[in-house]
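re the bet — no i am not wrong, look at it urself. input seq straight from the record:
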Amino acid sequence: MTGRLWRRLARAEARLAGGRATVAGVDEAGRGPLAGPVVAAAVVLDRERNWRGLDDSKKLTPDDRSELYARVLSGARAFGWSVIGPRRVDAMNIRRASLEAMRRAVLRLSLAPELVLVDGLDRIPGLSCEQQAVVDGDAKLLSVAAASIVAKVVRDRIMERLDQVWPAYGFGRHKGYGTPDHLEALERHGPCPLHRYSFAPVVELKLAL
């Protein structure tokens, strides 16, 4: 990865910011897994700092994400995150739960943003500030990339801790996604309280019990 990438992301964000000084990027992690929470993060970066290496969390190695996570938390102007567990995901549906986690993450910022840049198609309900939704924003905008890293690292660490509570499922390895070994463990043991009972194939297994 070259040092040019973060500058390109910063320039793209500056164009959308239009002179606004306090811009928050927002993203979530955990929409697709069969188990665990959905986590959202909001980050306000100083775009003049050197954010070399910053990119969409999905393109980074776990070690790179951990390093950048520490850099973001130590160097960001403000950050916040929110966690919504599997029972709330079941009650609200994953789209609404993700948006609610994003709303809470923004409200936990120590700075009130003038503009919120949201990864995806949806704006966040319940916010009074200006917003713009950007498809693939985590690959296009600096603050959204930072938020994607924070959300991913926070969620991964939660799943690694929960692996110690329910070790039979391998949550520390697959983080709740529907991998073959996770599906095999589900069939062998049935769902645990960490699973999303509204998600197939968890719902099918739960009904079969």
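see?? The chain has one domain: 4-162. told u. also The domain at 4-162 is CATH 3.30.420.10 (Nucleotidyltransferase; domain 5). so pay up
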